[in-house]
Amino acid sequence: MQLIGSLLYVTTTRPDIMYFVCLLSRYMEAPTRHHLLAVKRILRYLKGTLTYGIWYKRMEEEDCLIGYTDSDSAGDLDDRQSTSGYVFFFAGGAISRGSKKHPVVTLSTTEAEFVAASYCATQCVWLQRLLVQMGWKGGVKK
């Protein structure tokens, strides 16, 4: 379905719809009427929120890279796998975000949180190195 491809492109500037678009993309091999109605609902939401966006301030030396992570233990009802996500803020706005199903089935919420934390930590190290290469001299807020 071309609508899902277009919506995936829109998620680069509108991360608020990413979860729902990715969820719908799982069913594009055999979409039903319910999936089309969900896509139309996302399009109506986008039409009503055209003025929304992410605003960044000028980068300063004291700016910190701030990250948040969370996981949903066995939240997928289809295969009971956990999903974790993260978001990093810098200069007043989100600069990186991601959501990923865990490659393994976790047996406890603690284990799911550990997988989410390690996923977030790898992204944090990569972002910090990228910012240093761009001339940033700040730190990571812990």
TrEMBL record:
Name under which the protein is recorded: RNA-directed DNA polymerase
Organism classification: Eukaryota, Viridiplantae, Streptophyta, Embryophyta, Tracheophyta
